[in-house]
Amino acid sequence: MSSASHKVIRLVAVGSVAVLLAACEPSQQQGQQPPPPLVSTVTVVPERAVITSDLPGRVSAVRDAEVRARVTGIVKRVLFRQGGDVKAGDLLFEIDPAPYEAAYQAAAADLERARADARAASLLATRYEPLVKINAVSRQEYDDAVARSQQTEANVLAVKAALENARINLDYTRVTAPIDGRIGQALVTEGALVEGSTATRMALVQQLDPVYIDVHQSTSDLSRLRQAFRDGQLVQVADDAAQVKVVLDDGTIYPESARLLFTGATVDPGTGQVVLRTEVDNPDDVLLPGMFVRVRVEQGVNDRALAVPPQAIQRAPNGLSNLYVVRDGAAVMVPVKTGNNYDGKILITEGLEPNDEVVVEGFQKIRPGAPVTTKPWQSPA
After folding, report:
1. Sign of CA dihedral 359, 362, 368, 369
2. How far apart, in whole angstroms, are the C-alpha atoms of residue 274 and residue 220?
3. For 245-276, what is each residue's pLDDT tens digit?
4. Whole-prediction pTM value?
5. Domains observed in the chain
């Protein structure tokens, strides 16, 4: 065989090897799998947790006093700062007193006239008394004089009552605060006509320290709370009151003392629920009537509670809760039941075991049953 033929054969062989290598390279690339996704996890360990129950409620004033007109007239002056604090007896409004001053003076004059008539009648009866004994006047004339004296004395009492009524009406032209508290806006202005017959509403004074928070519970929940109170799980501050905490709408704990009152519990006929009342100290007027807050009741201690960060909870469309738990290097979705919040975490009552590794971050990278790599989750500062 010639040397030229050997060169051709070698070139063909080299080309075949190159083609085979090129054909094998894509298959090798296809066999390379991407690394498992990285997720952040926490290992759940039993801890001591205080079990609480949050009862939603609404703030109301301890005392609401409506300021109303008790006589008819024109408002001359409004004498308070709207939204300010007032004391019982502070002057709030002045109604034009002129017609009531005139009525009082007329009643005083009527009283003087009645007293003069009574004195004259009494003197006449006294003068007739010895004369009737010697028949200088008839018995009928003496009896008439005595009756007249008694009538004038009764008239004096009636006119005194009319004078007192005139004085009361005159006093009612000065409208004062009925209680200590915070007064709202003036509901009438200078020049407005107020009616005593319809008791025109002029303002509202509310006592805001302390305040009440009314919460609604089922009768079964009330029985459970009473049992916890009897068992000593609730801190007793009075014979029939338990210490509780108030949670504001931003999640912060209100610092002042609060007491859940078991006395006076009533049933709402519309809902069938029990209305419980909480009394809360409110020296700085932080709690205002109408605000919605939560009353947190401590109901016991769980020494082996399991809790996870809130972001670890996965909500299903059917409303159920799930967790991703790492088992044998794979993310497994586990249905769980959640309890109350505790120390920024959520208690898990069913579905989780001690020392389970729970995924907290990286859910968008995983699917149920897929392998994962883990790193410890760092709580944000």
Report:
1. negative
2. 9
3. 898 888 888 998 888 876 556 677 777 777 88
4. 0.60
5. 39-49+303-376 (2.40.420.20), 53-61+208-301 (2.40.30.170), 98-172 (1.10.287)
